[in-house]
Each structure stands twice: as C-alpha cells, then as structure tokens.
Design brief:
101 residues; alpha+beta; Arc Repressor Mutant, subunit A; 3 strands
Length: 101
C-alpha cells in the first residue's frame, strides 16, 4: 500500500506532474500552489510526503521561502519519470491514430 500512501490524491498527481515537466527547476510553495492549482494545506501535506519519500528536496531559501525541486538521484523520481514519459508517448500515439483515422 506504499503507492497509495504516496499518490493519495489528485492534487498529489497535479504537483508531481507539474514538477516532472520542469525537473531541473526549483519552485517555492507559492509557485507550486499557483502552477499546480493546489491549496496551501494540501500542498504542505504533499510536500511533506514527497520529502519523506525523497522524491523532492529543498534546494535553497530566498528570504523565508524554501525552494523545492525533484531529487534526480531518487529511484522513485526515476520511476515516476519513466511512467510520465510512457503515458505521454502512449497518449501521443493514440491521438495520432485517432487523428489519422
């Protein structure tokens, strides 16, 4: 049930999906709330869980704002990235097949 603990909500999926689109950039909580369209309370729970599983890490602090980015050394990040790429590839193929039919 570990997968269920990590991917526990649609908000979690939105945050992970957004981060996977920009794996080398770091983001503040305010950035992630706005870009992933997630509320503050849920975002805090999500970031705590992602840090616990070492999917993300704090990179630096600007004023009082911590910045986060994907932990590219994490095996879990690599697995999530593969799944994201596979889904993207498959969906592009399906769209290509649908458009040419």
């Amino acid at each position: 049930m570990v997968f269920g603990e990590l991917i526990f909500s649609m908000d979690m999926v939105k945050v992970i999906d957004y981060l996977l689109d920009y794996p080398t950039q770091d983001f503040s909580k305010a950035d992630l709330m706005r870009k992933a369209d997630v509320g503050f309370r849920n975002l805090n729970k999500i970031l705590t869980k992602l840090e616990e599983y070492q999917v993300i890490c704090k990179t630096r602090t600007i004023s009082r704002a911590a910045l986060y980015r994907l932990n590219e050394d994490s095996k879990l990040f690599k697995a999530l990235n593969k799944v994201d790429n596979l889904i993207t590839f498959e969906s592009e193929e399906v769209r290509g097949i649908t458009q040419s039919a």
